[in-house]
Amino acid sequence: MNPLLRKVSETKEKIRTYYDQTLAALIADLRIFAFSNLCAALIALGLICCSPGKIRQSVVWFSFLIFTAVLYCSYLYVDGLSFFRILLGVHLGWTYPLLICVVVVGLFLEYPLRRRTGENQNADAVSNGGTS
After folding, report:
1. Can you give the pLDDT of all 132 residues of the chain as single tens digits?
2. N or C terminus of the chain: which is more exposed, having fewer CB within 10 Å?
């Protein structure tokens, strides 16, 4: 066989192998993304449906935080997908569900803390004091 044809054939095979590996990694990453979003939605729905009346408001608030975290993480995930990231094999993989958990915990710790410490009341007092 001609050395040039052999080199072209080897290069084509390398490209085909790299394409197959990249596609498989992207499909796995998208499956993790979809499954994580589905699990988070089912957890939020289950919390709302199965919570007793006394704590329903708190559970609905937590479910809303899960929903907000999923929306935010989905935006980050989709916004981060680019031709070069896919081509270079940069995928979130199992760090995506971890990112959702971190955002939920961060939101949970941030917003109730603001209400307990009265930051909103202090901000209102400052703004009303400045206009008087």
Report:
1. 788 899 999 999 999 999 999 999 999 999 999 999 999 999 988 888 887 877 778 788 888 888 989 999 999 888 888 888 888 888 888 899 999 999 988 888 887 655 545 555 555 555 565 554
2. C
Q: How many domains does the chain have?
A: 1
**Do the beta carbons of residue 52 and residue 79 sit within 8 Å?**
no
Packed helices 119-131 and 95-117: angle between N→C axes, nearest 10 degrees = 50
The rounded distance, in Å, linking the Cα atoms of 76 and 108 is: 19
The range of the structural domain enclosing residue 118 comes to: 93-125
